[in-house]
Amino acid sequence: MNSKELLNTAFRKAKNVRKKKKEDIEITKINAVRHYLTSSIKKRIKKTNIKLGGFEKELIRAEIDEEELRKEIRRMKKSNEIIEKLFKEFKNKMKTASKEEKARLLKAFYGRTSSVVKKLSFEESEKLLRALRRLPKLKNMPTLLIAGFPNVGKSEILKRLCKTKVKTAPYPFTTRKLLIGFIRDDGKEIQVIDTPGIFDRSFEEMKPEEKKAVIALKNITNKILFVIDPSETCGYALEDQERLLEKIKKTLKADIITVATKKDIPHDKKTKVDLEINALDEKDVEKLKKEVMKLFFK
Ligand SMILES: Nc1nc2c(ncn2[C@@H]2O[C@H](COP(=O)(O)OP(=O)(O)OP(=O)(O)O)[C@@H](O)[C@H]2O)c(=O)[nH]1
Ligand SMILES: [Mg+2]
Fold it and tell me: In this structure, are 141 and 256 located in the same domain?
């Protein structure tokens, strides 16, 4: 929704109104504009003036500026009040006006409401609605979280472990929200969540994507698959990835499986992990799956 579209639709509706018996056509028109604008804005307020709790609230906060949203909602309410006032004022004037005057008043009403609505950006509420759509639909069941630096191959692992359709690409921040898959093995089932990549830095410094991963780490589960790319083709030093792992170990009481991926790419780096895999090799993925299931069902 943007103000231009909103106004265009409102004026189109006014153009198409039919004359009511007892009412001047100009009054019917300004009423149509008033009704469409205020009810659309009211709908937007209702959708975005909401209370969220806990984990979802934190995820939303990673993406939107709450203070800005509150301000935008206040501006929307104020605009509706002004439109209602203008409507009353112009309706009264029209009642006693001549034909020419009515035509002039109609134009003036359109002008005044336009300038009120044009000041609304709907930017932050638009962001909120997008963030709400992106909220993960988590199931209450045993859950594994895949974490690590950007571009190391986390989503590739989700794709292969769960046969889930996910976007993978050779650049950082391909994954921008929490993605969900499921592993079914031997009559048992777990939920797997792939997170956006994170760097080893403070929460305040993080991009919204990184924040979402950290919020997930702190809230969803204590079972983590930490992915390391020792080939460094991800673009980041092995030592930095290891430092992040140490930090996660220290700050979260979690059961962690560490996996070094991209085994097929030659390199001379050494790292201590539970498992080394080539995510594109089915046998390796099968081994990883067994290892993961052991973490849940001993
Ligand atoms: N050769 C090789 N390439 C791999 C392997 N695993 C992942 N890749 C590739 O590495 C690139 C990055 O993989 P992604 O799964 O998108 O990485 P990610 O960690 O999810 O990245 P972000 O979502 O950006 O944090 C992709 O081009 C993958 O195809 C592997 O075992 N071997
Ligand atoms: Mg990814």
Answer: yes
Any atom of ligand 1 within 6 Å of the Cβ of 181: no
Is residue 128 domain-shared with residue 194, that is, in the same domain? no
Mutate to test the pocket of ligand 1, among 156, 176, 225, 262 (most ligand atoms within 8 A of CB): 156
Write the CB contacts of 189 (distance below 8 Å, at least 6 apart in sequence): 141, 142, 182, 183
**Which amino acid type is present at position 215?**
I
Tokens of residue 155, six digits: 């989503």
Model's pTM, two decimal places? Answer: 0.87
Contact by Cβ (8 Å): 219, 55: yes
Ligand 1 contact, 156 CB (< 6 A): yes
Q: Angle at CA 102, nearest 5°, toward 97 and 106?
A: 140
Which tens digit of pLDDT belongs to each residue from 129-161? 999 999 999 999 999 999 999 999 999 999 999
